[in-house]
Amino acid sequence: MAVAGVIAEYNPFHRGHAWQLGEVRRRLGEDTAVIACMSGNFVQRGDFAVLDKRARAEMALRGGVDLVLELPAPWSAAGAERFAQGGVAVLAAAGVVTHLAFGCECGVPEPLQAVSDCLDSDAYRAGLRRYDNEGVTFAAARQAVVRDLAGAAAECLSSPNNALAVEYLRALKTLGASIEPLALPRIGAAHDSGEESEYSSASAIREKILAGGDWESMLPEASAAVLSREVEAGRAPVRMENCQRAVLAQLRRMAEEDFRPYDGGNEGLYHRFYAAVHRAATVDDILSAAKTRRYPLARLRRMLLQAYLGVPQAPQGETPPYLRVLGANERGRALLGRMRKAAALPVVTKPAHIRRLGEEVQRVFDQEARCTDLYVLACPDLRRAVPESEYAAAPVML
Prior knowledge:
By secondary structure, this protein is an alpha/beta fold. The chain contains 16 helices and ten strands. It has helices at residues 15-28, 53-62, 73-76, 80-93, 110-119, 122-129, 138-150, 160-175, 202-210, 221-232, 244-252, 269-277, 283-290, 297-309, 330-342, 359-375, and strands at residues 3-8, 33-39, 42-43, 47-48, 67-71, 99-104, 180-185, 323-328, 347-348, 396-397. Strands 1, 2, 5, 6, 7, 8, 9 and 10 form an eight-stranded mixed sheet that branches. The chain has a two-stranded antiparallel sheet with strand order 3-4.
């Protein structure tokens, strides 16, 4: 039986993902099991997930996923390279995944592989050095060098899902994982499009939910039911603005050097960010004051979020030290049985047992628990912000 792994940043429950799951099973067989490595409560765009991770895990299970594993905050709230590094490592360590399925704009693997190979070459690294001190963004410099070396394939880097898919391929190679990539065409609205359609983008769905609009028609029926339940309970929608004063208080008490660990490019951005914190009155004002052509908004959002959490993105080459189970159905529980023997990392289903698994597991899990304590402060109903819930939380079992 094939086992397909997918990596979900924020929205594993909209119709585009449902289509992809169906396509995976059409290509690999109807009995294919699907494992999702899903972001925890904080996501790669540098924001709070609109819905708590266990509710999203339930949505994923009701939408066709069999087993949901968590991608911890040092990887889920990081740039594309670290995000892919963590997600692929989790799926590889499970020991049962045969294919890595992902949606991308080009829909075929050949140009993605060409770009992946280019980015890992000495010629690319030498070419990139030419753009030092040129004032262009890293993304623009990277694309220019890849265009010189790989020609038209470089256009992959202009599209966000293609660019992330390239990082998945690089991570597979770096980890030496014997997992076959499965590129699927991305259907529906563009990544950040606000257009509403049968396959609306995650951005459009998120904005509709946050605005209190008619989001029910944009989600599969089972997912809409879960979200309605969470809204009625005061647990959703979660947004940074709900705890903006707490975010600002944390940032204002930090010294300039305290921001250095969150400057992922080590370019001195933290000086500019510190100055923005001390002349702005809102989170949006901080981001606007720090933004330049060289520093795109997504990078600044991640820096702000990481500073609030006190969690820098994972270092190059570091991967999650455990496999945290967020949810499973019957077939997923069978996969868990296989993983108990095949997995390269501890499989965590009972957080209360985490202390038995070693200091590194304990450190990262404690860090995730602290992040959850900060996440729940942004729930609409503050009575839902009870701390230290992570050690009592059981996986969702359907």
